[in-house]
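Service request form, structural biology core

Requester: graduate student, group of Dr. S.
Request type: structure prediction, single chain
Budget code: on file
Notes: please return the result as structure tokens.

Sequence provided:
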Amino acid sequence: MSNDNAANNPPDKLDQLVAAIAELDRKVDTRFEAMEARQSSMESRQSSIEQGIINLGARSEVLESKVEALQHQLTDFSGSVQEQLTSMASDIRKLDRKFDLLNEDVMEVRSDQRDLSRRQDNVEKRFS
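Core staff response, request fulfilled:
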């Protein structure tokens, strides 16, 4: 029987050792699963960040093309405005010359009017 007692004791310790290893294995599995979940979460966030960067790049390209289009429009517009200003300056010079001529004509008419008025006065003095 002492052999049976001796034979029974090691299996109890062996069972405890197996139970402890099983518990350790369960804890390691639990930790490993938690790490995998965190890694999966990090990969998902990294993927979201990468997609965000790609979206920013695309938006940046769209903005660049819009800016280029606006630059072309502004260049065309400024050229048109410059042409109009040049035309207006030319028209203003023409008007200025016309006003000068009109002023000369008005002065000449006034001078002629004075002369006529004097002649009329002289004629009236002769006949009165």
